[in-house]
Design the sequence.
């Protein structure tokens, strides 16, 4: 009886050892498969960077701009056929040799690259995004000597109240040319709350939210006519422009304030929808300023969304008497 039990235990031990060995082999094969898939990363990187290059040339109004990608690119398998590519780079503010360019601007980027059926000739790059950093650099020039993203010198009218009929003081930034066509609050039709710079911030990147109007400088705006039916909307408190964050054009893209740089993400069209109410349309992508979730609470975020004729997408440009 005892002998039979020992034989039974010995057989179980051997079976357990065999199972562990098989499991280890499966793990090893899985690891090899992952490494093999990631081996196609260099091809995915090439595809992603070319898509980013085209996006920058299209949106920054360049023509075959000198663009350089850094060696910090990372790849991550999202599925058997989709690779996520991310990294950083920089581009010159004029075409030609990167090394001889006047100034450069850095950016981060990401994209998804799909290899359908293993056929690299049929690659598909999607969700291409790049985020510009604020400062220009190069040739020893001061970062305050800013250019617009179209390469036009845009140091205008800074820091003087004659450029700001609304009474605020512009801080630390350039100002677009053009007359102020409206000065005052911008009120949401659904909530009757106004566009507001969170925390009365004067920093680049501060979010735009809605808040009960109390006639504070961070709740008053100057709408500046840029011509061609386009406007810039600048805070009287910070002097910064309402901007789509990170050149993103999907629904839900965040709205922030940025120093004026003449990019398409800072240009808007005011399209009247009845009475004193307007939809505020991004020149970059045709989406509108929208109160998230049609919320009525203080602090509700402002973002981009497709226009669907809702009250939370309509804004009054008029002071209540």
Sequence:
């Amino acid at each position: 009886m005892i002998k039979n039990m020992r034989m039974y235990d010995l057989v179980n031990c051997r079976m357990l050892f065999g199972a562990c060995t098989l499991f280890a082999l499966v793990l090893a094969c899985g690891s090899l498969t992952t490494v093999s898939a990631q081996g196609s990363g260099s091809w995915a990187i090439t595809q992603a960077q070319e898509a980013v290059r085209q996006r920058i040339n299209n949106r920054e109004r360049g023509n075959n701009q000198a663009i350089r990608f850094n060696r910090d690119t990372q790849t991550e398998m999202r599925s058997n056929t989709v690779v996520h590519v991310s990294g950083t780079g920089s581009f010159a503010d004029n075409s030609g040799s990167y090394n001889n360019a006047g100034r450069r601007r850095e950016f981060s980027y990401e994209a998804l690259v799909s290899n359908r059926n293993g056929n690299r000739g049929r690659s598909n790059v999607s969700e291409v995004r790049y985020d510009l950093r604020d400062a220009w650099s190069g040739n020893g020039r001061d970062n305050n000597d800013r250019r617009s993203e179209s390469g036009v010198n845009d140091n205008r009218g800074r820091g003087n109240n004659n450029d700001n009929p609304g009474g605020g003081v512009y801080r630390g930034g350039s100002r677009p040319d053009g007359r102020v066509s409206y000065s005052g609050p911008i009120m949401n039709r659904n909530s009757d709350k106004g566009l507001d710079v969170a925390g009365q911030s004067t920093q680049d990147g501060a979010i735009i939210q809605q808040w009960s109007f109390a006639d504070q400088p961070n709740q008053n705006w100057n709408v500046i006519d840029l011509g061609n039916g386009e406007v810039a909307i600048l805070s009287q408190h910070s002097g910064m422009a309402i901007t789509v964050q990170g050149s993103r054009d999907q629904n839900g893209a965040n709205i922030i304030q940025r120093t004026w740089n003449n990019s398409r993400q800072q240009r808007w069209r005011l399209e009247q929808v009845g009475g004193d109410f307007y939809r505020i349309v991004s020149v970059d992508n045709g989406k509108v300023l929208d109160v998230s979730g049609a919320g009525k609470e203080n602090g509700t975020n402002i973002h981009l969304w497709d226009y669907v004729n809702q009250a939370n997408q309509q804004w009054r440009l008029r002071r209540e008497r």
User: Anything to note?
Assistant: The chain has a mean pLDDT of 75.
